[in-house]
Amino acid sequence: MAQPDTVTRILDTAEVLFAERGFAETSLRNITSKAKVNLAAVNYHFGSKKSLIQAVFSRYLDPFTTRFHAALDDLEARHRQDGSIIPLEELLETMARTVLEVPAERNSLKVFMRLLGLAYSQAQGHLRRYIQEEYGSVFTRFTELVRKATPELPDAERFWRLHFVLGTVIFTLSGLDALRDIAEQDYHEHVSVRDLIRRLRPVVVSAMQAPLPEPPVQEVS
Amino acid sequence: MAQPDTVTRILDTAEVLFAERGFAETSLRNITSKAKVNLAAVNYHFGSKKSLIQAVFSRYLDPFTTRFHAALDDLEARHRQDGSIIPLEELLETMARTVLEVPAERNSLKVFMRLLGLAYSQAQGHLRRYIQEEYGSVFTRFTELVRKATPELPDAERFWRLHFVLGTVIFTLSGLDALRDIAEQDYHEHVSVRDLIRRLRPVVVSAMQAPLPEPPVQEVS
DNA sequence: CAATGTTGTAAACAATTGTTTGAATATGAA
DNA sequence: TTCATATTCAAACAATTGTTTACAACATTG
């Protein structure tokens, strides 16, 4: 067939519109008309709008988790031989590489990151629950490896720092278009996603390895 | 009067609901019923939902910019005397202190940060434009001071790093509730906003002072 | 007091939302 | 072919949205 099938057309259109305007701000009629598909097709194929949102995420996260698990398998196997601990840089590098690989096929890394950002910031409680349940284990595996790579960090400190850098990455890459416009206008330099990751690397590493904070100030009691 | 007036009741209720669920997901009927106010009151006092959203932001950002300008005046005056340059730490410290001061009266720093996060992540183009036009100048002043404090950084690099740490702060503080739940469950330690800022300080400073990235890889041409 | 402008209110408005229906059409196996 | 299943489609559904209207209540000022 010349045209991709209905399900694919819906997913392709939905992910772009969701990334552009958010979930609540994107109506089914909006999606179906742009996808040149009947309105009822969404409910027929996906059941509901919620399920469509989850399906959009699965299409990215399923291949991501598969590849990421494989990459971590590799990494662990290589370091089991010489008995060394996987350095933090390598872990971060592996994650970055996997994130870059997955959506490369469809040229939509931007969309992927924007969706991730939305998953955090939009209300959509069902989405957070869905992502946690479906993909929580790969994140747990990763954080466990980070724990071994940074034994000097207290557990709680590491937890927060991981989310600090997660914030940096998601915030930057999901708002990339707007930031890129400003950057090009002000500094006349074109910024690709790979450039950004190159800039992010030393910042993220330094952030994770920053000196420990002063102990909390005790109130007189 | 025992009850605060209608306008205040609407603003108080709206900011909480907006922060909890986002703008599109919060209906006017939702706000007015919870605020025990007639539905038409919003359009009567504010004109439209958009204007209400902007008014919610003004109530935080107006006092913030005023205080922040004053704090920067102080800082500059003190350093003009001995001719020294304001160190980065002091600039960041000043900003953090101002952010903490402003909503302290209403015990709603969480709401404030969450709103800031929404302003970035939600579609609401009118909001971004409004904030940029109304409050862009204070941000420009701040970045100019940061420029003087970090002369070793190329302009573009500093631009990106500022947005990296902006991402960290907004992402963390605006998703605070969810993260706090996980942290308390996993590490049995209660985290206040002040704790978080204490943890953020060394991370942000290290991030800004990270080594420069490797120069971009040149393709063969 | 009377007049005037401000604020509060119930009801209706038109538009848009996600979802469902039932019939039409296409597809594929017997 | 024939039958059954899968898909598409236009239409309608009920619910919810932001906004407007017309009127009542109130306050303020002359």
Automatic annotation (TrEMBL), chains A, B:
Keywords: DNA-binding. The keyword Ubl conjugation does not apply. Residues 27-46 bind DNA. Residues 4-64 form the HTH tetR-type domain. GO terms for molecular function: DNA-binding transcription factor activity; transcription cis-regulatory region binding. InterPro entries: DNA-bd_HTH_TetR-type_CS, Homeodomain-like_sf, HTH-type_TetR-like_transc_reg, HTH_TetR, PsrA_TetR_C, Tet_transcr_reg_TetR-rel_C_sf. SUPFAM superfamilies: Homeodomain-like, Tetracyclin repressor-like, C-terminal domain. Gene3D superfamilies: Tetracycline Repressor, domain 2. This is Transcriptional regulator, TetR family.
